[in-house]
Amino acid sequence: MSKDLEHAFVTELENNQNIVHKVCTLYTNDREAHNDLFQEITIQLWKAYPKFRGDAKFSTWMYRVALNTAITLYRKSKKRVQTIDYESVIFKIQADEYDATEEQQLKLMYKAVKQLNDIDKALVFLYLEDKDYTEIAETLGISEVNARVKMNRIKGKLRTILNP
Amino acid sequence: MMDELELLKKDWQKKDVAHPKLSYNDIYSMLWKKSSSIVKWIFVISILEFALPHLLYLLPSTRNNLNIFGSTGFDNYFIGFSVFYYLVVFYFIYQFYSRYKEITVLDNAKNLMSKIIKTRTTVKNYIIFSLAMILVTVLLFMLGIYLNNDFSNLISEMGDNVKKMSPEKLKHTLIIAIGILGVVMTVIMGTVYFLLYGLLLRKLNRNYQELKKLEI
């Protein structure tokens, strides 16, 4: 493949890497696994890139490939060290911006989301990224109605995790 | 709860992940790394599965064993059996390849999973067929030995203890031994195969069931 294509791809991914990092954060529990998944998503994006050619926004197209890789294609790396409290370092908690209760609430929410199963996480991820139900449904291959029903159930699940 | 999720949404969109940003060169170097996706694993394992029984045939001992049919008039049956076997194998390879080609990461999650499972089913059917063929071959061996009266060359290759046995007894022992060995081999191969795939596809199956559950 030509150098131009490589350059275009790497630049796009460099600018949009936050999306991939967020997926990795949701689906892995330690830094090593995070990097591993990031790499696999990059490989899958790169393999699919020739088929992309600008018919959608690069970022839109990334969501699908990244989630497919995380949910379906990715095999967890063998060396699995359970790290204790990765959640607390996942997101930069900017203490000055929030009052303590809100920050605490957010921490608990992130922790609860991490406990969901792979499919539920995918729905929550797209929801948090402000995707509408049409796009959520298309990405996962379910109907829009089912996506809504599922999202309501997930809210219920989160409620149970937060208030046992 | 709604409020909390909305709160999370605002926070989520505002923040960067606390992970060091990767540089252009970091990402560039990843392009050439090897993928470890399950699709690649299925492909590699399947190629091995298609190739392995044929590699086995290349071993001199296996070929010699098959020569036992030379003196029993089983030749024609054996050729017919081989033709049938290879036709079926090529059908499986063709089906596997066309299904494998259909897998694309650009599909929606459910389609992607279902295509992977279909590809895997092709390999599963091939394995069941292969195991059945092993059993049939073992059966043919047993039949071949039963019908073969010329044991002198076989016996001369064996130890003194064996020579003391009557040809009749030797024949029966051999037939039973081959029978047991064949069945044990088939069971072991089958178990290894299903364990291997079971582990490989555990996550995929779980997620696929989760998505399918939604459609009911």
From TrEMBL, chain A:
One of its GO terms (molecular function) is sigma factor activity. SUPFAM superfamilies: Sigma2 domain of RNA polymerase sigma factors, Sigma3 and sigma4 domains of RNA polymerase sigma factors. The keyword Transcription regulation applies. Residues 14-79 form the RNA polymerase sigma-70 region domain. It comes from the Bacteria. Gene3D superfamilies: 1.10.1740.10, Winged helix-like DNA-binding domain superfamily/Winged helix DNA-binding domain. InterPro entries: RNA_pol_sigma-70-like (IPR039425), RNA_pol_sigma-70_dom (IPR014284), RNA_pol_sigma70_r2 (IPR007627), RNA_pol_sigma70_r4_t2 (IPR013249), RNA_pol_sigma_r2 (IPR013325), RNA_pol_sigma_r3/r4-like (IPR013324), WH-like_DNA-bd_sf (IPR036388). Keywords: Sigma factor, Transcription, Transcription regulation. Residues 109-158 form the RNA polymerase sigma factor 70 region 4 type domain. The keyword Cell cycle does not apply. One of its GO terms (biological process) is DNA-templated transcription initiation. Signal peptide: none annotated. Belongs to the sigma-70 factor family. ECF subfamily. NCBIfam families: sigma70-ECF. This is RNA polymerase sigma-70 factor, ECF subfamily. It comes from Cellulophaga tyrosinoxydans.
From TrEMBL, chain B:
Keywords: Membrane, Transmembrane, Transmembrane helix. The chain crosses the membrane at residues 38-57, 77-94, 126-147, 174-200. This is Uncharacterized protein. It comes from Cellulophaga tyrosinoxydans. The lineage of its organism: Bacteria, Pseudomonadati, Bacteroidota, Flavobacteriia, Flavobacteriales.
